[in-house]
Every structure is written in structure tokens, then in C-alpha cells.
Amino acid sequence: MSASESPLARKLGSFMPLMPDELRCVAELESTRRSVAPRTEIVYEGQKDHAAWLLLDGWANSYKLVPDGGRQIIGFPIPGDFMGLRSILLRTSDHSFESLTDAVISEVSQQRITQIFEDLPRLATAIMWGTSRDEAMVVEHLVSIGRRSAIERTAHFFLELGQRLALIGRVTSNGFACPLNQYVLADALGLSAIHVNRILRQLRERGLITLKAQQVIILDLAGLEDLAGFDSGYLNHGHSGT
Fold it and tell me: Where does the HTH crp-type domain lie (predicted)?
């Protein structure tokens, strides 16, 4: 996979231009490819001494289960995202990762991450930028669930997802593929599936967005951003100048 085709290289390259030795390391991280079916558990909550995984293709989700059997989806890793990276430093995973679609993943050991920090500090800094950006997204999701209305948080979610996919070249001129059904969206947005269906209908009737046949079509980007109060600054795209 060339640098232009590598989601991880594209993502980290938006923070700082990657040097040839750094690009070779990215290619090596992507080399232990493994295909998994939908709903494959990749990391489970409470797992100890596990590797991290790099998502190369497909979609996944991270989540926690609560005692009554409910599920709160924390986020949706897309190609170029690490899964379980923080937990290999904490030794025990505090949440789970599962594939949502057919996916391709690559195993990354704790020893390999440590070696990158020792040998390639610029690349390590870019990886830390990626994890910091993930943390910023969790903060925004917390604000959405706590303070944004149902329609605002749904609009914000799709805008953020579109920006993330654009960074790795997975968008069209007016939208993007999205395999998330209403039940998955409900667990991510803190709503019921019926409420999600109602909100999607309202967004469509306002001429802002439509979701059909696993495709999100943004009809009025400015209107959607205005509704959500969306400011993409927390996603921190653009070279740092490092």
C-alpha cells in the first residue's frame, strides 16, 4: 500500500509531513494484515496484556456495556485509526472494540510502539496527536449527550464523521458511505432507535441531510453546521509546521 493509499499515512501526514523512514515504519505497522468478519470482538473490556490494532479497512465501534445489558457506543474507528492503543499502556482494556463490517486489521505490539518512541520521535508525536484528537472527540460527544438537543447532536455527529472520512479520502462531493443503522446510531447518540428515525426524518424534511442505502448525502452543509453549532477546530486538521 503506497503512502497516498494508506489511511494512517494520510491521517498522520495531515499533522506533519512524514519522512521516508517514517513512511516505511507506517508500512511495517500495516503489514500484519488480518481479515475479520462483522461483529468480531477485537479487544474486550478487562482484557490484559493485549496488543493494539490498526484498522486498515472497514468500520468498527468501541463501547462499554452496563449492568442492565445496555450499550453505550463511545466511538467509531475508521481506517487509519488505532484500537486499544491507550489500553496497552494501562495494561487492562477499560472498554471493548468490535468490527461492524468486514474489516482488515493489523496487530501492533506494545514493544513496537515503545520502539517507535525511541527511534522515530516525530512519528511518535504524530501518533500522540492522533490519540489526543480521539480524546477531543470523546469530549465533544460528552457535550452532545449532556447539552445538545437530539437533532443538534445527530447533525454534529454526521459532520464530524464526514470530516474524519474526508481526511483519509473516503468521501464523495456531497457525502459518504455509512453502514451505521438506526440501532447503532441510537447507542452512540444516547437515543432510542425510534427517536433516531424521527430525527433523521426531520433532518431530511429540513433539506439538510438524507441517509439512504448506507449513504449519507449532505444537502445543505452550511445549514447543517449552523444547526449543530459545529466548529471543526477540535479535529485539528492541517500541518503543525513541526
Answer: 148-222
- Specify the higher pLDDT residue, 239 or 143: 143
Q: Is the pLDDT of residue 238 over 70?
A: no
**CATH number, residue 36:** 2.60.120.10
Q: With respect to residue 201, please indicate whether it lies within any of the assigned structural domains.
A: yes
Q: At which of 88, 107, 134 does a domain end?
A: 134
Q: For residue 91, what pLDDT is reported?
A: 76
What's the rounded Cα separation, in Å, for the pair 53 and 112? 12
Could you report the per-residue pLDDT of 84-110, keeping only the tens digit for each? 988 777 778 889 999 999 999 999 998
Domain annotation covers residue 2: no
User: What range defines the domain where residue 66 resides?
Assistant: 7-134
Same domain, yes or no: 142 and 209: yes
Is pLDDT above 80 for 3?
Answer: no
In a domain, 242, yes or no: no
Domains held by the chain: number: 2
- The pLDDT confidence band at residue 237, using thresholds 50, 70 and 90, is low
Let me know whether 115 and 228 are in one domain: no
